[in-house]
């Protein structure tokens, strides 16, 4: 029998129609929907007199526009309209929605897994680029555009050209104090923001196998920042145990049957990929980005690069522009760079383990003078769980703000933003110009590193705080 990767197995199982050299028609198992990219898609259905083909395979939430304080008071008119429209559309088309009142509400890529909607072997789409997060479960999950959202709503299928397969192997074990976020930032720093173009990544290796589901989600979340169509990890016991007992996961005997099928999806020993790259886990340090794309990052002991060291003229210009926007001088130690804001949240790093890691650093310490730090849980369930564990108190006592769930400061589509020219240590996934507000300067880091920056007022190697306990 030919040996196959999980990518080929899922692709083949979902192909409804195909012709050589042309895109294939894929069946979609789960369609997640949010308020920003769905209004025109529903409107399209309405204009054409169509229904949602499989409402029970469609699940909506509100996240981008949601205020994280006074979440029911939506002052921005566009935001309010988008949320009201989503509620109306879901009512009219019979789609389940986790609206602001729902205990299930939260960031779309946080609640899918949390509710057990995200499962191995599924094809999952959403009008949102970070849909790759769901790949952590061994699902084929990717972002789509609004016209494709309409296509999936009305047919439950999607035309797709078959991507190439790319194995990203993380070799060996991670050093203490180095997290999943550092792994994915280091991968992107090493191979660039385009190395995944046209491909679906499968992450492999001991370091990945040893990760929890939450850590795997952090890695897969940023596959898109490597230019990939999607990123995934073959499912294993860790995956199955995470799903057991979740609201939408199969129950009892059905669950055991599902586990058998899910296990068979993992990439076959000896299967080949179109391309393979490798990174040594032991060489990864806690990361900080210095520039305006996620590949412009260094280890915490590194210095801001000098554009004059570049041989390639285009690279030199790119670095110069990034440094200019970021207000940084070549040769500066990143650990000398001061921050005015700290944001712990987003679909990359707002789950329980992220909040626990940040709280471990914050506990018994104080946010440095002149720093504004906030913690934004990824879902209302996470918020409640964190409060039950007393994490909110740890953060509040240290001087952090404790918020309601939402995309928040990850992108300034809601009241949370970084003022012009100010610097933010952020656990999100994008450091593009203007991402956190006009002229805002974003540095991507892990939750523990963000908490360390909050208490020191500048980037700091979190490993000096608590070697023994910081994971
Ligand atoms: C608003 C949405 C379309 C966008 C995306 O697709 O990713 C957002 O979630 C982001 O992170 O930039
Ligand atoms: S948290 Fe950020 S990256 Fe994730 S969906 Fe929201 S805006 Fe996009």
TrEMBL record:
Taxonomic lineage from the root: Bacteria, Bacillati, Bacillota, Bacilli, Bacillales
Domain Aconitase/3-isopropylmalate dehydratase large subunit alpha/beta/alpha: 8-457
Cofactor binding, per record: Binds 1 [4Fe-4S] cluster per subunit.
Recorded catalytic activity of this chain's protein: (2R,3S)-3-isopropylmalate = (2S)-2-isopropylmalate; citrate = D-threo-isocitrate
EC numbers: 4.2.1.33
InterPro entries in UniProt: 3-IsopropMal_deHydase_lsu, Acnase/IPM_dHydase_lsu_aba_1/3, Acoase/IPM_deHydtase_lsu_aba, Aconitase_4Fe-4S_BS, Aconitase_4Fe-4S_dom, IPM_dehydratase_rel_enz, IPMI_cat
Residues that bind [4Fe-4S] cluster: 347, 407, 410
Pfam families, alphabetized: Aconitase
GO biological process: L-leucine biosynthetic process
Its job: Catalyzes the isomerization between 2-isopropylmalate and 3-isopropylmalate, via the formation of 2-isopropylmaleate.
Family: Belongs to the aconitase/IPM isomerase family. LeuC type 1 subfamily.
Name assigned to this protein: 3-isopropylmalate dehydratase large subunit
Keywords: 4Fe-4S, Amino-acid biosynthesis, Branched-chain amino acid biosynthesis, Iron, Iron-sulfur, Leucine biosynthesis, Lyase, Metal-binding
One of the record's GO molecular function terms: aconitate hydratase activity
Pathway recorded for this protein: Amino-acid biosynthesis; L-leucine biosynthesis; L-leucine from 3-methyl-2-oxobutanoate: step 2/4
